[in-house]
Structure formats: C-alpha cells, structure tokens
Amino acid sequence: MRTAFVTLLLLLLTSLSPTPAGAADNGEWSVRPADSAITPRAAFELPARPGTTLTDRAVVTNTTAAELTFRLYVADAHNTERDGGLAVRGIEEAQRDVGAWGKPEHDTVTVPARSAVTVGLTLTVPRDAPPGDHVGALVAVDTRVQPADGSHLGVRRGVGAKIYLRVEGPRQPGLAVEDVRFTARSPQIPWTGTRESTVSYTLHNTGNVKLAPRVSLRVGGPVVGGPGERRLADVPAELLPGQKVRLTETWAGAPFAGWGRVTVTASADDVRASGTDGFLKVPWLFAACPALLSAAWWLLRRRRRAVRTAGAAARG
C-alpha cells in the first residue's frame, strides 16, 4: 500500500508542472481556477491578510467518455529531495500550511463524461500566519483504483492546480549555498578516455518568498583543461520558502589537473550566495613526470661519469 501511495505522489508531481493549456491536466481530467472576468488563470494567485477568509472557484473537467468521481482536498506543496521539483502532501498526510487553511466546497464531486463542474474554494488565513509566500494545490484524486504496470499493486491518480498565497507583511528573500562537493573523475593519463566530474551542493531558501534561482560554477587556481566557469542547468524552477534541495550535476569538461577552489554561486530576487570546495587533482602521468625527469637526469650523469672514467683510463 505504501508503494501505491508513493506512485500517487509522483503522478501529482507531474501534474503540477505547467501545461500549455494553463491547467493541471493528465489527458483525462484537469483542475484549474475558474476564469476571472478579465483573463484566464493558470494558478490561484491570491494576496491575503492574516485573519481573513478568501473564496474562489475551481473548474474540474472530465474529458473521457465515462462519468468520473473525484475526492477533492487542499494540500501543502514542497520541493522534492530528488530534483527540487514541486510535489504535494498526500490526502492522508497532515497538512500544516495552505493545506490546513483551505477547504473545497465538496469533498467529493462527480463529473459526467466530457463535462465540467465548478466548485467553490475557501481559504481561511490564521491571524498568526507568517508573512510571505505560502504554496499549495487544490487536488482532484480519481476514486478508481487502477493496477500499476508490472505489479499487483493498485494506484489512484490525481492532478492539482497550484495555489500561491502571499500573506501581507515584510518581504524577506534569502538564499544559501551549502555543502559544496567537487569530485574530479578523469583518466589517469590525460586526453585519454572521458572526464565526468560531478558537482554537488545544497540550495536553501532561507527567506519567506519563493525564488527562481540561477546557479553558476567557477574554478579558481592553476588548472589544466576545461573552462573556468559554467552555468548549471539542473536547478529547480521554484524553490519554496524554508525548503532545501541537494543537487548533483555532471561536468564532462571539468579541469582534469591542478589545484584551487570550486565556487558555486546562486542568485535570485536580488539575493546572492556562494559556497566553495577545495580540490587537488594530479593525474598519474603528471605525478610521474618529476620522477621520470629525475631518473633521466641521474642516468645522464652516470653515463657522463662513465665516459670520463673510460677516457682517463685510456690516457693513463
């Protein structure tokens, strides 16, 4: 049962990704905010004051040829440890933030084939709600249990429309780069084989607003091979307040020899932070060069001494 529940969370994670239609959609049903009088909305984006109650509407659409029944609930969102993507807490998990403040008009809704149903949504913001961004989702879970591929387990699928709630108060962005680790992996003989070094680091949102971080890497010191600076690509699009994610990226063109420091720098929303790691990488051939030169010099001196000795003997 636990495995089935994990599968549900992975499906919810996929559904929280933006779609061209602006709704959370898995190809069979979707959840989206009801259109405003001015423009369609891709997510619930609501400013709020502590102690107030907000109301909104959502549209649940069934695009299949059969009637479908869904359980509705509001969930907290968080960044996954795996890659920093957005996921939500499950329906049986304790909700502590937006998930605890929100409630749909109906816990269960049945949507006829190729039809849509509009449901109300209420968010009650506590008086002691901390200022800043609070992120969650309105989730519709299919009540049908479907078999998982290649197993005897059943899964329930769900999709969720994002809720961005900004509580009034001081806005304090903050960002930290922690525990940078550079692991150099290169052939012992330079310019042979492939080089696939890795850079690992932790991104930590220490503020109270969500961030879209940009991360770069720079190598300082005498090094051989590879550029000294690059932009890192595998970065979460949204890092929620208080969340930290551990990220690892392969660097095929990293320097393969030298010493110095690797610096990872993250920036977002006018904040900037860096973390560093020292490294020393000496390939076998480079390490052997001094020994080879010393041996060659010793052999040359020995040969010259032998020549001088032989010459002196011949003259005597």
Give the SSE map.
Blueprint: H1 2-15, E1 24-25, E2 29-33, E3 44-48, E4 53-62, E5 68-79, E6 86-88, H2 98-101, E7 102-104, E8 108-111, E9 115-124, E10 132-142, E11 146-147, E12 154-155, E13 158-167, E14 175-183, E15 197-205, E16 214-220, E17 223-224, E18 229-232, E19 244-251, E20 257-268, E21 271-281, H3 284-315
Parallel strand pairs: 3-13
Antiparallel strand pairs: 1-2, 2-4, 4-9, 5-6, 5-8, 5-10, 7-9, 10-13, 11-12, 14-15, 15-19, 16-18, 16-20, 17-20, 20-21
Task: Give me some keywords for this one.
3 helices, Immunoglobulin-like, 316 residues, alpha+beta, 21 strands, 3 domains, six-stranded mixed β-sheet, five-stranded antiparallel β-sheet
How would you describe the overall organization of this protein?
With about 325 residues, the chain is α+β, with helices and mostly antiparallel strands. The chain has 3 domains: about 1-165, Sandwich (Immunoglobulin-like), CATH 2.60.40; about 175-280, Immunoglobulins (Immunoglobulin-like, Sandwich); about 285-315. Helices cover about 15% and strands about 45% of the residues. It has 3 helices and 21 strands. The chain has helices at about 1-15, 100, 285-315; strands at about 25, 30-35, 45-50, 55-60, 70-80, 85-90, 100-105, 110, 115-125, 130-140, 145, 155, 160-165, 175-185, 195-205, 215-220, 225, 230, 245-250, 255-270, 270-280. The termini are far apart.
